[in-house]
């Protein structure tokens, strides 16, 4: 069963006892988001190969210095994206991230994100979800991210709703000013969780430890989501398979089961084949390089993103490399921004008329 279905079918309320007052407190968990997930305009399910591709684009060192906020656009006011945990965790390990081997973030299962944004697709909030244990219990991050892709350099993104306590900034230490995550995103506790921790009487060290742990359940997902949104917005887009579950749901309803949600399965584009490459000196002066791996590299030129596919070098016996560059071209950002402005004005006029 997909993670979106598990969230929608989640009925168990999350209640805890306040350690200071002793009162029972209800916190906003997966069940509190079930209605939003059920009402999503679009739901995407990533294949494992696409998850690995997005992870390569998101976490490889060569992909962190691309200023691409103007190319990013959320295609619906409510959007659901999910993927398998295993290929994602494998990519994190490959790129040197420390990940838990036990506990809530370990093992298989699935991960997902609910994005709610403005009509122009440029600002909104993100909350993440995952399953744990053999019973696939659904958990939701107690933090949420808010973003504004139009945040000017040196300024702070503004949340769409009134401020709710302290917001946190996450950045790549090597690319502070050029990092979309650092410039356009901030993280904060969801309201009920913020109130709970504020009244829990934690010491400064305890508060810092909890905050770091909780931040790790959501911040690490954002680069992968951004990579997917970039690929989704490219002119060629991604191979899609719309899942129509009406026939299956008719059978489920007859058996008294809950209907499953429609979704779109998206796969990785077919990348040009590459083979290990070997360059030898015809005069025999230089020795051929040893077989080694070359990290993928992402660079932007205008409205196009070029990705140097990770590849092996050093052996001629497997053939000659055909190509190592994949190009994704986007529509003119200025034209799209103007169109987004027109849509926003139309939406505002519509709301004024309704009022």
The main pleated sheet reads as: 9 strands, mixed
What Rg, in angstroms, do the CA atoms define?
Answer: 23 Å
Overall number of strands: 16
Number of domains: 2
The percent of residues in helical segments reads 25-40%
Overall 3D shape: globular
Beta percentage is 15-25%
- Total count of helical runs of at least 4 residues: 10
Contiguous runs where pLDDT drops below 50 for at least 5 residues: 274-278, 338-355
The secondary-structure class comes to alpha+beta
Q: Can you write the helix and strand succession as a string?
A: HEEHEHEHEEEEHEHHHEHEEEEEEH
* Average predicted local confidence, pLDDT: 79
Oligomeric state of shown chains = single chain
Gap from first CA to last CA: 42 Å
Please provide a brief summary of the model:
By secondary structure, this protein is an alpha+beta fold.
